[in-house]
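R.M. (postdoc): so does anyone remember the format we settled on? I'll just put the structure tokens first.
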């Protein structure tokens, strides 16, 4: 075999590995996203946490480099409001990460975050980019299409 052929094959095999490595969050971002899943939906089970992760992906347009910005946006996730309105620095999220990391679902939430970044997470919300408790109908949901109900949450897709 020619050396150029071997190099080509090797580079094609390694190329996806390099792409995935760029999309991975740092350890702190991974924990902040997992905390969001726990605090928003741990009581909704694994499907509920996966749904919150899908909403994060849908709000980012599928761009993994924007996942953390979506989570840190003020008022985007009510369980994080105390931190997102204070600031976006590491220190403001530390109490939330500390509290969430004690939850029994912590390792599952971290696995869901990993699946989100690797592109392996399926969208059980059917493209939803918002959600609320199903016993509420917030004013921001008017004009949006309801996509599914998971646990106590009703999911919506923006027009």
């Amino acid at each position: 075999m020619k050396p150029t052929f071997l190099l080509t094959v090797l580079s094609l095999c390694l190329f996806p590995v390099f792409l995935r490595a760029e999309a991975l969050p740092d350890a702190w971002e991974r924990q902040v996203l997992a905390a969001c899943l726990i605090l928003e939906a741990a009581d909704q089970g694994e499907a509920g946490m996966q749904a919150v992760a899908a909403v994060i992906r849908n709000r980012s347009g599928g761009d993994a480099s924007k996942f953390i910005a979506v989570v840190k946006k003020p008022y985007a996730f009510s369980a994080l409001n105390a931190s997102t309105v204070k600031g976006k620095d590491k220190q403001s999220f530390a109490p939330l990460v500390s509290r969430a990391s004690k939850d029994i679902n912590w390792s599952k939430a971290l696995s869901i975050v990993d699946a989100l970044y690797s592109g392996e997470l399926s969208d059980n919300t059917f493209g939803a980019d918002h959600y609320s408790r199903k016993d509420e109908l917030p004013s921001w949901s008017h004009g949006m299409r309801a996509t599914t109900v998971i646990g106590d949450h009703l999911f919506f897709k923006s027009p």
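R.M.: ...and that's the designed sequence above, right after the tokens. Also worth knowing: The chain has seven helices and three strands. The first helix runs from residue 3 to 23.
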